[in-house]
Amino acid sequence: MAKVPRNFRLLEELEKGEKGLGAEACSYGLEDSEDLLMSNWNGTILGPPHSVHENRIYSVKMHCGEKYPDEPPTIQFLSQVNLPCVNPRNGIVDPSQLPCLAQWKRENTMETVLIELRRYGYLMESPILRVSVEQQMATRCDEY
């Protein structure tokens, strides 16, 4: 099967993000509409209900390198957030700590990552779920 070129893939993601066709709790779009390489993106994650993150809005910066979608984007929280996968000093997400980034598949999207970050925050609140969060996240990542 032929691979969709990087720019076509990013155009699809841009259209979906701009038209609000994705998940209700996440949004994303280009940081600069003049960025012809479509490398730098902004994202927003709404905190999940019934959690310490409820009613909070988290802003992230995403960078899609030359090898995207074969390689995952880099993600940096611009908002302060307390998650084990996020470096508290600079807000950068450690890809080895988030299964969707650690086990990246070409089919994954920036929206996939935003949704998983939202779920990760929710799952990490529960001491029972925290023990098996990696297995749950890896399973959910396969659903996309």
UniProtKB/TrEMBL annotation:
Keywords: Ubl conjugation pathway. It holds the Pfam family UQ_con. It comes from the Eukaryota. Residues 5-144 form the UBC core domain. InterPro entries: UBC, UBQ-conjugating_enzyme/RWD. The keyword Coiled coil does not apply. GO terms for biological process: DNA damage tolerance. This is UBC core domain-containing protein. The lineage of its organism: Eukaryota, Fungi, Dikarya, Ascomycota, Pezizomycotina.
